[in-house]
Design brief:
Layout (H helix, E strand, L loop, with lengths): L1 H10 L9 H12 L4 E10 L6 H6 L2 E6 L4 H7 L7 H6 L6 E2 L12 H8 L4 E9 L3 E9 L6 H21 L13 H11 L4 H8 L3 H15 L4 H10 L4
Helix pairs in contact: 1-7, 2-7, 8-10, 8-11, 9-10, 10-11
């Protein structure tokens, strides 16, 4: 156990220097890349009273996301964001689990796994964190190979827990009743959308990838209940969230 703790602390030693939750996610992913990690998704979700995956996913607060090229676009085009059982399963687990673990029928035959494999992600590890306010946070990691030993899995789970604490510290939020809660980065991305910038241009302005910029815009659209980007910008103005 102590060896795993020491390795986890070594992996996460640089996290205190990260200025944003997203930067924490990038540093964590870089640290565990030698283990085969190629993607990271970290977010917070409210658990009750949701009964469906789409409702559970709609109320998310994104901390960090870095995915293979083409993942986000295909993920939303195929409607996978409304029915991701990996995220939903986190509400029913208290320890780290592999995406391919048995025991959850809704994890079987999910088309998102086919997409992940097409993009070089063979399996994943999700670490759930049950937090105050009936929320569950996740750090979900995709691996191009998954041949981790028990100690390596524990090391990555511990490092992810340290990273999660830092992401929460850097990305506080208080859900406001009757009004959607957008992160500063989501508002920044929509502000640039209002200026007519593309995802690539937004990424360049904010120092993030085009994929990440797209994810922030799509997350803001869902929270605002908007079908288009223009509608999202209009609702943001009308709610006084700019």
């Amino acid at each position: 156990m102590m060896a795993s703790v020491t390795r986890a602390l070594d992996l996460s030693a640089r996290l205190d220097t990260a200025p944003t939750a997203e930067a924490v996610g990038r540093l964590l992913l870089a640290a565990i890349a030698p283990y085969g990690a190629r993607s990271i998704f970290s977010a917070s979700f409210k658990v009750p009273p949701y009964k469906k995956v789409e409702d559970f996913a709609a109320d998310r607060h994104l901390f960090a996301q870095q995915s293979p090229r083409g993942w986000v676009e295909a993920y939303y085009q195929r409607g996978l964001h409304t029915r991701n059982p990996v995220v939903f399963a986190s509400a029913r687990r208290t320890t780290a689990f592999r995406w391919s673990d048995p025991g959850f029928d809704d994890l079987k035959n999910w088309p998102g796994f086919d997409l992940a494999r097409d993009l070089g992600i063979q399996d994943g590890l999700t670490i759930p964190f049950h937090t105050p306010g009936n929320r569950v946070d996740v750090v979900s990691l995709g691996f191009e190979r998954f041949d981790l030993s028990r100690q390596e899995t524990l090391t990555i789970a511990l490092a992810s827990a340290v990273a999660h604490e830092r992401m929460v510290e850097l990305s506080p939020f208080i859900p406001a009743p009757g009004k959607p809660t957008l992160t500063p980065r989501e508002r920044d991305c929509l502000a640039f959308v209002a200026e007519g910038l593309s995802d690539a241009d937004i990424g360049g302005k904010l120092g993030i990838s085009q994929t990440t910029a797209h994810a922030h815009v799509e997350s803001a659209k869902r929270k605002l209940g908007a079908k288009t980007r223009a509608q999202a910008v209009a609702r943001l103005y009308s709610l006084g969230l700019f």
